[in-house]
Specification:
mainly alpha; Hydantoin permease; two-stranded antiparallel ribbon; 1% strand; disordered N terminus
Length: 450
């Protein structure tokens, strides 16, 4: 009889729920992070400015949104963790095991994402206090900071703050935190955008950002854009799937998907309108890579009036964006261990954070004090990033698309889409997304090169 497993399911369903706006803010909080504020601007700089931005929008809409909707629907249908939801909506055990890939990916990502989040907190504090601008050698300052113990201390602060939010639960913790900080973040972004757009020579930065250089586009930029669309929407790591499990049945997942995608683009767009005008105004090359935010931007802030204030605001904004993402990352393994081993939320949160902290130490040190912590020329940190972002993330995405596109009978009902939209969604999930995601995987894992 069919009724037996479904009875079992309902007894192990989670009972926590988001309010409808709370869910949108929490999901935007997960999506908007260092990816939008730190990575997006420098890859846009590298791969052709506006041409890359347009490509990114296309990838986000055509591939990212269908996968996002699939994750949300599987989560809400199953009301379990990023692993069990696949089984609870009717998949075989093997899907649950495959879903564990995302739980592991989320765990690994927290261990190194929280390190970079810690840098932003350190920079916010030292910018506000004026220390950052007391010494104009920003490269030296960054290297000094990295070679000491401070990155570990700041990582610990990030993990503790994340834990304090997640331990309070879905509605009193995660939802409340995001409902305050995500609108707050938008206000800070707009203030900084106005500041940077009114700098002398800002126009050159705007036109770099908004005038397409099509000659830089190619297969490589397509794969980078696609990979980033995935990362930016927090896909492939069970984060959206886990949040989906807390969404009310009455909420429209289609509308939520559009709102989350739109929010993610908006925050990235404004970040671009802060970073490019600022760097161009001070004659800094925007394609400087990862150091752009921690070395080039402090130089720009130090040269502007009230630089300590604006610089401090900028780094605080990065820290907020990062924290709303670490919160959603942590919820993935927390939901999993609460369900699997019947741990209490408190126990799950602190045990997982402790393990993330331990795993984070070699990552943090490998970029500074212990630069010998590398394998085959790649630092421990870069290995973690590579394994999680380049291997596990596309794999996790592939599992979601194949499951929802080919195996899941209840996809139409749970998605709530009308017949026409459902057909389009299914087409993207079946034929377009898996092939492109497979290419991203082959590219990021180094199997194919351009
Ligand atoms: N989307 C986040 C950003 O843009 C990073 C991220 C990737 C993420 N995957 C995630 C955050 C999963 C939370 C959960 O920075």
């Amino acid at each position: 009889m069919k009724s037996h497993p479904s009875n079992q399911n309902s007894s192990s369903d989670n009972k926590e729920r988001f309010s409808s706006s709370g869910f949108i803010f929490a999901a935007i909080g997960s999506a908007v992070g260092l990816g939008n504020m730190w990575k997006f601007p420098y890859i846009t700089g590298q791969y052709g400015g506006a041409a890359f931005f347009i490509l990114f929008v296309v990838c986000l809409v055509a591939i990212g949104l269908p996968v996002l909707l699939a994750e949300l629907a599987i989560g809400r249908g199953g009301r379990g963790s990023a692993s069990s939801s696949f089984v609870k909506v009717g998949g075989q055990q093997i899907w649950g095991r495959l879903g564990m890939i995302s739980v592991i990916a989320a765990f690994l990502i927290i261990s190194f994402y929280s390190i970079v989040a810690g840098w932003t907190l350190n920079y916010a504090v030292s910018a506000f206090s004026g220390n950052l601008f007391a010494n104009p050698d920003f490269t030296g300052q960054f290297n000094d900071f990295m070679s000491g113990r401070k990155p570990i201390v700041w990582q610990l602060v990030v993990l503790l703050l994340t834990g304090l939010v997640v331990v309070k639960g879905v509605s009193a913790g995660i939802e409340k935190f995001n409902k305050i900080l995500i609108p707050g973040l938008l206000i800070l972004l707009v203030v900084l955008m106005i500041r940077s757009l009114t700098l002398p020579g800002a126009g050159a930065g705007v036109s770099f950002f908004l005038n397409p250089d099509w000659s830089k586009l190619g297969a490589e930029s397509l794969l980078v854009a696609l990979g980033h669309a995935f990362f930016s929407l927090s896909l492939g790591m069970g984060a959206m799937l886990t949040y989906g499990a807390y969404v009310e049945k009455s909420q429209s997942l289609g509308m939520a998907t559009l709102a989350i995608g739109g929010g993610d683009l908006l925050y990235a767009f404004i970040a671009g309108l802060i970073i490019f005008p600022t760097t161009f105004s001070f004659g800094i090359n925007p394609a400087e890579g990862p150091g752009l935010v921690f070395i080039a931007l402090p130089a720009a802030f130090s040269a502007m009036p009230f630089g300590a204030l604006f610089g401090g605001l900028f780094f605080m904004l990065l820290a907020i964006a990062a924290l709303t993402s670490t919160v959603s990352l942590l919820e993935v393994p927390v939901a999993y261990t609460m369900e699997r081993w019947k741990w209490t939320r408190t126990k799950s949160v602190w045990i997982i954070l402790f393990l993330c902290f331990l795993l984070g130490i070699p990552s943090a040190l490998s970029l500074g004090a212990a630069s010998n912590l590398n394998l085959g020329g790649k630092a421990f940190f870069d290995w973690m990033d590579f394994i999680a972002s380049n291997l596990l993330l596309p794999l996790g995405g592939l599992i979601v698309t194949v499951f929802a596109g080919y195996y899941w009978k209840g996809a139409a009902a749970e998605s709530g889409l009308t017949a026409w939209w459902f057909r389009l969604w299914l087409f993207m999930l079946r034929y377009v997304a898996p092939i492109l995601v497979l290419f991203v995987f082959l590219h990021t894992s180094g199997v194919i090169k351009f």
